[in-house]
């Protein structure tokens, strides 16, 4: 039975696209059939983060409007064969997405894949609503920062009221993914602690992704971080998150970089 | 570490962030239509006042200040100097 997962946040720039790519790749690396779908029409970026930007021919809008077959628009990842991407349109208006068209595409994707991961645009408008509408589960990406937590609270409210499941009176599984977390700053009382954010938002924790240079490096290279450096701290956090999505119960910790003496000396001299 | 921060006279900011969020979100969750409520109050209060005194709509200010225990609704009406046209005799 395929699962539809939306990666959402309300606020922009918190790591939705990075997390969609990393979670999608991590699931595919464990052998699952995964498609990541970019719903950010007009501002597509998932293709770029995944390194597929030069292979886009048809997009989600073309499929929604019936101008292309789904198989023509899907791009198979070159590194993980069970991973595909369905890009958004860069030129079209977001109004080109119709609820009926999106429903049809999601239904078709459910038949082909184990996981359908929808990368939501920022905001709470039409694009974000369409991205979450068919979801069985949601990953709410949040930074330990006041505006991000507030927007996440708003999005959680929408997940519980405007989605297809909510309208049918069913539950939608919501998971918190805390990104750009700095445990040292949190310990010093300079950053909201995980417990604070969990208490405020009261949804279960999927994982804590530590602030890391590896994330920018990965997007520079056009690779999900779980592929570019699978043993780095953020990658280990994403791999654990994926195991929780699959139903495993694991204690949540903040992975740290395993640094050698050389790294330590180098970092000191630069700082 | 936090005792060091307080030793140097600098308070930590994360607890402030947590408290602000808790207050804000409690209110936002309680009433999605809070801003609508204020607009409606403004409209209706003005209507009542207009029955007795002629006031300019711009001279009525309604503010909401949300606190932990108490929320304050502040209504500020600037009444014109001329006597109201109310007949008492």
SS strand fraction of chain B: 15-25%
Q: Provide the CATH topology of chain A.
A: Rossmann fold
User: How are the strands of the biggest sheet of chain A laid out side by side?
Assistant: 3-4-2-5-1-6-7-8
Question: Can you name the CATH architecture of chain B?
Answer: 2-Layer Sandwich
CATH architecture heading of chain A: 3-Layer(aba) Sandwich
Text of the CATH class of chain A? Alpha Beta
- Write the H/E string of chain A, N to C: EHEHHHEEHEHEHHEHHEHHHH
Largest sheet of chain A at a glance?
A: 8 strands, mixed
The largest sheet of chain B, given as strand count, sense and whether it forms a barrel, is: 2 strands, antiparallel
Which parts of chain B are unreliable, with pLDDT below 50 for 5 consecutive residues or more?
Answer: none
Number of β-strand runs of chain B: 2
* Number of strand elements of chain A: 8
Question: What Rg of chain B is obtained from the alpha carbons, in whole angstroms?
Answer: 21 Å
What's the structural domain tally of chain A? 1
End-to-end Cα distance of chain A: 51 Å
Q: Spatial order of the strands in the main sheet of chain B? A: 1-2
Mean pLDDT of chain A, to the nearest integer, reads: 93
Principal-axes geometry of chain B comes out as elongated
Question: Helicity level of chain B, as a percent range?
Answer: 40-55%
How much β-strand is present in the residues of chain A?
15-25%
How would you explain this protein's 3D organization?
The complex is a heterodimer of chains A (271) and B (89). Chain A is α/β, with parallel strands linked by helices and 271 residues long. Chain A has 14 helices and 8 strands. The N and C termini of chain A lie far apart (51 Å). Chain B is α+β, with helices and mostly antiparallel strands and 89 residues long. A two-stranded antiparallel ribbon of chain B has the order 1-2. The longest helix of chain B is centred in the N-terminal third of the chain and has 17 residues, at 14-30. The radius of gyration of chain B is 21 Å and the shape is elongated. Chain B starts with a helix and ends in a 12-residue tail after the last strand. The mean pLDDT of chain B is 73. Classes of the chains: A alpha/beta (271), B alpha+beta (89). The interface between A and B is medium-sized, with 17 and 16 residues.
């Amino acid at each position: 039975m395929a699962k539809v997962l939306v990666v959402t946040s309300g606020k922009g720039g918190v790591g939705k696209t990075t997390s969609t790519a990393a979670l999608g790749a991590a699931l595919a690396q464990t052998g699952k059939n995964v498609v990541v779908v970019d719903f950010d029409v007009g501002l597509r970026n998932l293709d770029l983060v995944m390194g597929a930007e030069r292979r886009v021919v048809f997009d989600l809008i073309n499929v929604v409007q019936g101008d292309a077959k789904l198989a023509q628009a899907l791009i198979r990842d070159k590194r993980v064969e069970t991973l595909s991407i369905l890009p958004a349109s860069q030129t079209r208006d977001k109004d080109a997405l119709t609820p009926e068209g999106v429903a049809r595409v999601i239904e078709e994707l459910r038949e082909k894949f184990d996981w359908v991961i929808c990368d939501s645009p920022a905001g709470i408008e039409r694009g974000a609503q369409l991205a979450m509408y068919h979801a069985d589960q949601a990953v709410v990406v949040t930074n330990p920062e006041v505006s991000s937590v507030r927007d996440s609270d708003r999005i959680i409210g929408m997940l519980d009221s405007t989605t297809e499941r909510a309208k049918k009176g069913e539950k939608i599984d919501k998971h918190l993914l805390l990104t750009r977390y700095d445990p040292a700053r949190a310990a010093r009382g300079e950053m909201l602690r995980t417990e604070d954010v969990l208490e405020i938002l009261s949804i279960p924790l999927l994982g804590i992704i530590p602030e890391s240079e590896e994330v920018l490096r990965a997007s520079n290279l056009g690779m999900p971080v779980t592929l570019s450096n699978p043993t780095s701290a953020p990658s280990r956090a994403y791999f654990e998150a994926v195991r929780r999505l699959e139903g495993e119960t694991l204690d949540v910790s903040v992975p740290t970089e395993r640094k050698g003496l050389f790294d330590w000396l180098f970092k000191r001299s630069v700082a | 570490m936090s005792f060091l921060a307080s030793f140097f006279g600098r308070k930590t900011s994360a607890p402030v962030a947590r408290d602000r969020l808790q207050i804000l979100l409690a209110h936002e969750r309680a009433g999605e239509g809070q801003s609508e409520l204020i607009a409606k109050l403004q409209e209706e209060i003005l209507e009542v006042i207009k029955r007795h005194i002629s006031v300019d709509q711009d001279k009525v200010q309604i503010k909401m200040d949300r606190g932990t225990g108490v929320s304050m609704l502040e209504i500020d009406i600037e009444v014109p100097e001329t006597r109201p046209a109310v007949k008492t005799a």
